[in-house]
Amino acid sequence: MADSLGTVHHKIKVTPEKVSSLLPGYLAHIDEPYADGSAIPTWLLAEEASPLVTVLLSGEGGDEVFAGYDTHAAMKARKIYRRLIPGFLRRNLIAPVVNALPVSHSNSASSSGPRGSQGAVNLAFRNHISPGGRY
Length: 135
Known about the structure:
Number of domains: 2
Shape: elongated
Largest sheet: none
Helix content: 40-55%
Number of strands: 0
Order of helices and strands: HHHHHHHH
């Protein structure tokens, strides 16, 4: 592959010992703990590449920038819904109907609080949950 593209590839061997030794430094540099399976490999890649290059480009963050998650579409739908439908209708007519719908746990990315996954459309209509309960 490297020959056909005219690039130079390097291997990085990741061992439990290597990960364990880098954790204190890694944790000191992140704002808060988070569950991202690619964080440690990305850290190791940057660490290994830093003597050779100044900038590394990756696909990390592309979903957030280009609204690639169902949650982003749901939030856009929610803004439109809240702008077009008066609050008294949302609270007194739509919310009771939406709360009566069955809960689906098949798409945890669009979870909306204590009732679990609601799907993008259902999430958009669950406006009566306080902002703290939505996220």
